[in-house]
Write a structure and sequence with these properties.
The protein has about 190 residues and is an all-alpha fold. The chain has one domain: Hypothetical protein af1432 (Orthogonal Bundle). The chain is about 65% helix and about 0% strand. It contains eleven helices and no strands. α1 packs parallel to α3.
């Protein structure tokens, strides 16, 4: 692990509760493994994984206040669903507080929850790693998607989007328009 990631790891540990920190480490290690599988820099993906949820444990009212303070625009769904805004806020904090300048890492953080049309390979890896990391047990088709992730990342993305929209359609949580656009771009699995 490089010096940058050692420093990030220590700082993130102080920002997150124990469960979220364990999830974060799981995503970072899985993202770096997927990076090796797909020929990307594992340290870069480890960085993105470490920072993907850096804003997650900020209280909701503070998240909204920080978004207003930093000029982070929220769509109508995000205004009603605070669990979605940690991604945009996290990307901002990764740049401002952690000094990350790599736009690919920042986009991977920004879109790890919703995805986006035409994601880079880095973005896809963090999106998938967040969904399938080892501490996750609730999502449908986890075993299958975990296998897919190391064989065809696009198939894993499509299956996650299909399952996510199916899950959201059965509950009371709103669907972020970016998730729907991403699903339309990648197609149903």
């Amino acid at each position: 692990m490089n010096e940058l990631n050692l420093g990030i790891k220590k700082k993130v540990k102080k920002m997150l509760d124990k469960e979220r920190y364990q999830h974060t480490l799981g995503v970072a290690y899985l993202a770096s493994s997927l990076a090796m599988c797909y020929g990307l820099d594992p340290e870069k993906l480890f960085t993105a994984g470490l920072l993907h949820d850096c804003a997650k444990n900020i209280p909701n009212e503070e998240k909204y206040a920080l978004c207003r303070q930093y000029g982070i625009k929220l769509n109508e769904v995000e205004k009603r669903a605070p669990y979605l805004i940690h991604s945009k806020l996290g990307a901002y904090l990764a740049e401002k507080d952690f000094g990350i300048k790599d736009k690919d890492i920042l986009n991977a953080i920004r879109y790890h929850t919703t995805g986006r049309p035409d994601m880079s390979l880095t973005e896809k890896i963090v999106f998938v790693a967040d969904y399938i990391e080892i501490n996750r047990t609730e999502a449908p088709n986890l075993k299958r998607i975990r296998e897919m992730a190391f064989k065809d990342i696009d198939d894993a993305v499509r299956k996650i989007l299909t399952d996510t929209l199916e899950y959201l359609s059965k509950g009371s949580r709103p669907v972020d328009p970016t998730t729907k656009e991403t699903y339309d771009f990648y197609g149903k699995y």
